[in-house]
Design brief:
single chain, mainly alpha, Rhopdopsin 7-helix transmembrane proteins, 10 helices, 3 strands, about 5% strand, globular
């Protein structure tokens, strides 16, 4: 089928109603981007340099931190630039690239969160065989599947989306290129796209989500059956933190991708877009690691060693 796209660029209409407060939003989003970048970079550095954190849990956390840096970098730098442009636009190829990496990283994060839930399940429910089950090769395999699934999913949706015709309008009702707003402005039949979005989304999105929930239900049962109060409190705190990330990520993702394009709303979907593209990656290092005792101790140790080395 020949590509019928007749536009060479898209206008990002998510900024059209922002007349005031641009300075505040710029500072807010720049601050969140900085927190995300610095926090996740610090977690990766500590996890790599500290031998005590060379465990499956922190291996997955390192991957999640790297993913979040890439994830927020796909949209926020362009958004910060567009705040101060009279007619924010993005080229056709730029839009395709942004959509591809956005969808790829969303899919990868879903599988990574499921892998982390599996790791916690084995650690809490099967401690005697944990090291045998979650060995180096298992971790590498789960991580490879996560990244490969995300990028294969992105290849499918990007190809389907940019085979459509956008001859009626080139205005995207969002801050960035995403599947629902692009489908809503196409003058082609988008039924195949919507079926693919729902069908593949069940595998890429809902399957890991339900797997994660089931894993944590078993974990919760094991925790409540454990009479050791110290471990009981620590395990509940860890699981609550993980579930907070899961609910934020999947809640906003399901709202965005699992509904007909006819229900798309500019104001409402901009808010959800900010939630899963900016807020979640910013909160991840705080929720997952920076409030974790092991990470805090590793950071203090690393800083003290650097201070000692500089003193010498």
């Amino acid at each position: 089928m020949e590509n019928q796209t007749s536009v060479m660029e898209f206008i990002l209409l998510g900024f059209k109603n922002i007349k005031q407060g641009k300075s505040f939003l710029t500072i807010l989003f720049l601050s969140m981007y900085t927190i995300c970048f610095v926090g996740n970079s610090l977690i990766i550095t500590v996890a790599v340099l500290n031998p005590s954190l060379h465990t499956p849990m922190y291996f997955f956390l390192g991957n999640l931190s790297f993913l979040d840096i890439c994830y927020i970098s796909v949209t926020v730098p362009k958004m910060l630039e567009d705040f101060w442009v009279q007619y924010p636009s993005i080229s056709l190829m730029g839009c395709a690239a942004q959509l591809y990496f956005l969808v790829a990283l969303v899919g990868t994060e879903g599988f990574l969160l499921a892998s982390m839930a599996l790791d916690r399940y084995f650690a809490i429910c099967c401690p005697l065989v944990y090291t045998r089950l979650m060995n180096k090769w298992t971790c590498l395999l789960l991580t490879a599947i996560s990244w490969a699934s995300g990028f294969l999913n992105a290849s499918l949706h990007t190809t389907l989306t940019f085979r459509l015709s956008f001859c009626q309008s080139n205005g995207i009702s969002h801050f960035f290129c995403d599947i629902p707003p692009l489908l809503s402005i196409s003058c082609s039949d988008t039924s195949i796209n919507e079926v693919a979005l729902f069908t593949v989304g069940v595998f890429i999105g809902l399957s890991p989500f339900f797997f994660t929930l089931v894993s944590y239900s078993f974990i919760l049962h094991a925790i409540l059956s454990n009479r050791e109060k110290g471990r009981h409190h620590k395990a509940i705190s860890t699981c609550a933190s993980h579930l907070t990330v899961v609910v934020l990520f999947y809640g906003s993702g399901i709202f965005t991708y699992f509904r007909p394009t006819s229900s798309y709303s500019l104001e409402r979907d901009q808010l959800v877009g900010v939630l899963y593209n900016i807020l979640t990656p910013t909160l991840n290092p705080i929720i997952y690691s920076l409030r974790n005792k092991e990470v805090k101790l590793a950071m203090k140790k690393l800083m003290s060693e650097r201070t000692f080395a500089n003193g010498i």
